[in-house]
Amino acid sequence: MARSGGTDPQHTSAFIAGVASFATWGLVPIYWKLLTKVPALEILAHRFVWTIVFLGLLLSWQERWREVIGNVLSRRSALFCFGSGVMVGLNWLLFIWAVNIGHVLETSLGYFMTPLVNVLLGAIILHERLSTSQIASILIASVAVCILAFGYGHFPWIAVGLCTSFGLYGLLRKQSGTAAIPGLFLETL
């Protein structure tokens, strides 16, 4: 509930977190471009290693290793974390590689298409119902994607690979039922 005469601190912090997140994602391609001489697989390997180190320390500090062990012992959680790890690994590898060879616009198209893939997977796999206005919005966004894709000049394989792998990552991650940090640790393994 907003305080009178001011803004709600939760909304302000959420807004700041959102701006920081989008700014970070907007700057990431510049960082990858600076690493064009480093193979994409090596960059991805560093991402995995340093994520494991950082999250291992964080899990120790928060005393949450029991959650990790519980998820490993749960066959369902472990399999979904493995699957989501494969999908996010493929997504990052494709993203880094595409930026390093100069396909930044196609990567942007892929992440622009991702919400449409998420909605499609939610409707088909999770049986989520869409209202008429939601369907209309999705159709308008789909037309925009088609216009952008046709304007690109050739079939956007990289964009399709990115939105598909990230959409499947989100679906598998949701199905894993793991908390954020333990789940990220497991999928990074």
Tags for this entry?
about 190 residues, mainly alpha, about 80% helix, about 0% strand, globular
Strand content: under 5%
Instruction: Give the SSE order as H and E letters.
Output: HHHHHHHH
> What is the count of structural domains?
1
- Secondary-structure class: mainly alpha
Q: Could you estimate the helical fraction of the residues in percent? A: over 70%
- What is the C-alpha radius of gyration, as a whole number of Å? 19 Å
Silhouette: globular
Q: What is the mean predicted local confidence, pLDDT?
A: 88
Span from first to last CA?
Answer: 41 Å
Query: Runs with pLDDT <50, length 5+?
Result: none
**Main sheet: strands, sense, barrel:** none
Report the strand count: 0
Q: Total helix count?
A: 8
Question: Could you provide a short overview of the structure?
Answer:
With 189 residues, the chain is mostly helical. Helices cover 82% and strands 0% of the residues.
Topology of this protein?
Blueprint lengths: L8 H26 L5 H23 L2 H9 L1 H26 L3 H21 L7 H21 L4 H20 L3 H9 L1
Description:
With 189 residues, the protein is an all-alpha fold. It has one domain (39-188). The chain contains eight helices and no strands. Helix 2 crosses helix 4, helix 4 (75-100) packs antiparallel against helix 7 (157-176) and helix 5 crosses helix 7.
